[in-house]
Specification:
The protein is an alpha+beta fold. The protein has one domain: Nuclear Transport Factor 2, Chain: A (Roll). Helix content is 33%, strand content 42%. The chain contains four helices and six strands; from the N terminus they run ααββαββββα. It has a six-stranded mixed beta sheet with strand order 2-1-6-5-4-3, sandwiched between helices. A hairpin with a 2-residue loop joins strand 5 and strand 6. The longest helix is centred in the N-terminal third of the chain and has 17 residues.
């Protein structure tokens, strides 16, 4: 099941990069929780449920005319996955640009994402997953 979880995470990241909201949320449980990391936290620090998460992503995409994440490594932890990469972003109004490390810690249940949290550094995500680097 865990390799399947890695593939689910990769599909979610690809959907995010395409800004395909429907494909993005299809792998989320109804009670999913999202804790955005860094500049992605446009309106709030926590989103609960598919509708709130979908609204949060839509708002994020409106704030950033460029927001693309690139994978460096994915760590399969069985019932969770740590995605490590980088984020390139440019503000819609400010035109401020960021190119920084980015990581996401996903918690899985029954082949769906139940919780995920973004981080502006890899070590924070590894710490959240209980890993030492």
């Amino acid at each position: 099941m865990s390799q399947e979880n890695v593939e689910i995470v990769r599909r979610v990241v690809q959907a995010f990069n395409r800004r395909d909201l429907e494909a993005l949320i299809e792998s989320f449980t109804a009670d999913v929780e999202w804790v955005p990391g860094g500049p992605a936290a446009v309106e709030r620090a926590l989103y609960r449920g598919r509708d709130e998460v979908a609204d949060g992503f839509a708002t994020t995409w409106m704030a950033w005319d460029v927001f693309h994440i690139d994978e460096n490594e994915v760590r399969d932890l069985g019932d969770s996955v740590v995605w490590l990469g980088s984020a390139r972003m440019r503000g819609e109004a400010s035109h401020l640009e960021f190119d920084q490390p980015f990581a996401i810690y996903f918690v899985m249940r029954g082949g769906e994402i139940v919780r995920f949290r973004g981080f502006v550094g890899w070590q924070q995500a590894l710490d959240a997953a209980g890993l030492e680097e």
